[in-house]
Write a structure and sequence with these properties.
Elements lengths: L6 E11 L11 H11 L3 E3 L5 E5 L6 H20 L3 E4 L18 H15 L5 E7 L6 H8 L3 H8 L4 E2 L2 E2 L5 H6 L14 H13 L13 E3 L5 E8 L4 H19 L10 H17 L5 E2 L6 E2 L1 H11 L5 H16 L2 H14 L4 H20 L7
Antiparallel strand pairs: 1-3, 1-4, 1-5, 2-3, 5-9, 6-7, 8-9, 10-11
Helix pairs in contact: 1-2, 2-8, 2-13, 4-8, 5-9, 8-11, 10-11, 12-13
């Protein structure tokens, strides 16, 4: 009998000074200690000392995920506020100076900075990652090929990085632009099945391009540690309900595509080209883009594209139904990127200089994160 897939969520956050709104390049020992104490076994370090990650336990439903992240966002915000700091949940900080950031000194992160130099140093970015458990016997690369077409839509729903180094970049997800500077961090290779993936991985290990325990950082990938597929394309979401809706839509999509009646067809070249184009449009325009639809590649809005996903994979649980409703709300009313740009424009229109206007954006993102932590409203 078919059972719903379990899932887990990872959220990355920057640590900022509440008074100035600046990223804490060197958080105090007290701040670092409080983060570890509050998050416990769910705490994970990230590339920079100014960044942390919360990696959730395994969830069976959206209620569990909401309860967990409401609690841990709230506890972290309260602990950090006592030290004059806050939790910044968007994918990029509008005015952070990446040159001032301090890298982590563990062996793993030292190796990353040694290998990738300025590309690594510039990557002061936060993402939303979602793991979904895959049923035994399901070929994870074939599954990835089935869901890949829809991933740019999930990016469009999550965009939160339009501002970088004090500038409006013109991109709704500048995070994904910077991700493109890394090897193996774009869309996955169009590999036919798990055997092809293993050959691809072995070639990179044999030629020294990938360590024995190394991992690819694709927008979606098969986990090396768990029997999951991991969504990595999405920007971090200040509003918790946005993150939960995206996670639930992705989980539903994986469940539907893992069902046995789907034939194991490889990803065609045309599908890969279309997905690449939609990916670029999503990171450039976000929800405002015109995308290539699933039927005859006709132009569609993001809302119509989500409707196509819903039609092709109808929701069969309350979690999925609510996630589609909230997803449509995001696409109709705006993502964090839209709100940041609107806040910046209003601040500049009110006569604030660039620095003060960017500070307003930081304050807005912090407020959204605190609001989510005080008790996110369930999806409608």
């Amino acid at each position: 009998m078919y059972r719903p897939c379990t899932f887990g969520i990872e959220e990355e956050y920057l640590l900022v000074d509440l008074a100035s709104g600046r990223v804490l390049a060197s958080p105090s020992p007290a701040i670092a200690r409080r983060c570890r104490e509050v998050a416990g076994s769910y705490f994970a370090e990230e590339m920079f000392r100014s960044q942390i990650e919360i990696a959730s336990p395994v969830f069976a439903n959206l209620h569990q995920a909401r309860s967990f992240f409401v609690e841990y966002r709230q506890r972290l915000n309260q602990a950090l506020a006592e030290e004059g700091a806050g939790l910044y949940c968007a994918a990029s900080h509008p005015s952070a100076h990446w040159r001032r950031q301090r890298p982590r000194t563990s062996t793993h992160f030292r190796q990353l900075f040694d290998d990738y130099q300025q590309v690594a140093k510039r990557s002061l970015l936060s993402g939303l990652h979602v793991h979904v458990g895959v049923p035994p016997g399901c070929d994870r690369m074939q599954l990835i090929n089935r869901v890949l077409y829809w991933l740019p839509l999930l990016l469009a729903m999550s965009t939160s990085s339009p501002l970088w180094s004090g500038q409006n970049t013109g991109y709704m997800s500048y995070r994904r632009v910077i991700c493109g500077e890394w090897p193996h961090m774009g869309l996955p290779e169009p590999l036919a099945d798990w055997a092809a993936y293993q050959r691809y991985r072995a070639l990179h290990q044999r030629t020294g391009a990938l360590a024995k325990d190394g991992a690819f950082w694709w927008a979606i990938r098969p986990s090396q540690r768990y029997p999951t597929v991991e969504l990595r394309i999405c920007d971090a979401c200040p509003q918790l309900e946005d993150a939960l809706a995206i996670a639930a839509v992705f989980r539903h999509l994986v469940e539907q595509c893992a069902l046995a009646h789907y034939s194991p067809l490889p990803l065609s070249r045309e599908q890969h080209w279309i997905t690449q184009e939609n990916y670029w449009r999503a990171l450039r325009y976000g929800r405002h883009g015109q995308f290539l639809g699933v039927h005859q590649q006709q132009p569609v809005t993001a809302q119509a594209w989500l409707a196509q996903l819903r039609s092709q994979h109808p929701p069969d649980t309350a979690d999925a139904e609510r996630a589609f409703i909230h997803g449509l709300n995001i696409l109709e009313h705006g993502t964090s990127a839209d709100r940041q740009l609107s806040c910046l424009a209003e601040a500049r229109g009110a006569g604030l200089d660039s620095a003060k206007a960017l500070h307003q954006v930081v304050a807005q993102v912090l407020a959204e994160g605190r609001s989510s932590a005080s008790g996110a409203k369930p999806l409608p």
